[in-house]
Amino acid sequence: RSDFTNASGQRLPYFYLMPSNYTPTTSYPVICMFHGAGQDENLFTSPAGLRPYKFVFHSYRQQATTPAIILWPTRRAGGTDWTTEYLQLTSELLDALPNRFNIDTNRICIGGASQGVHAVWDILGLQPGLFAAGLFGSGWRGSSPAAAFNHVPAWACSATDDGLINTT
After folding, report:
1. pLDDT digit string (tens) for 109-146?
2. CA separation for the pair 86, 78 (Å, rounded)
3. Distance CA 168, CA 166 (A)
4. For helices 116-126 and 84-96, angle between their N-to-C axes, nearest 10 degrees
5. Rounded distance, CA 166 to CA 162, Å?
6. Which residues 6+ apart lie within 8 Å of 149 measured at CB?
7. Where are any strands of DSSP class E within 21-102?
């Protein structure tokens, strides 16, 4: 777990995973994933936060074949929504990462599940030129106009029998 604090003193807790064979001379893609409702900075420290989809990208096999830096921004304890403040902080964190790690800035991907989908939608609207791809996993659209990021390849998935999301 780490914290990003911007120039105004606002704090964004986040988790990240580096490839096991990280080499500073190699540039790596970043996969930034927003979690769903009911989770905050205690995300990986509570049994409820240990959901399998959070670990897909950092399995040993996946990192051996396609190494990437995996980033999970999260809300401060008690935070209940992905507000504009959190999205701006995440955007600032993504801008700061290349100063810390060797990042391939042409391969920054963003994704989210459930409540994290509207966060992905809105951060794509805030920084349409930053992302190489987006993933929407069974959630709802944000407030940014889709035209703001219609050039970004995106995948959207939801079960047809999802009781919360209308897939028709």
Report:
1. 999 988 898 899 999 999 989 999 998 887 777 888 88
2. 13
3. 6
4. 60
5. 7
6. 124, 125, 128, 131, 134
7. 28-34, 69-73
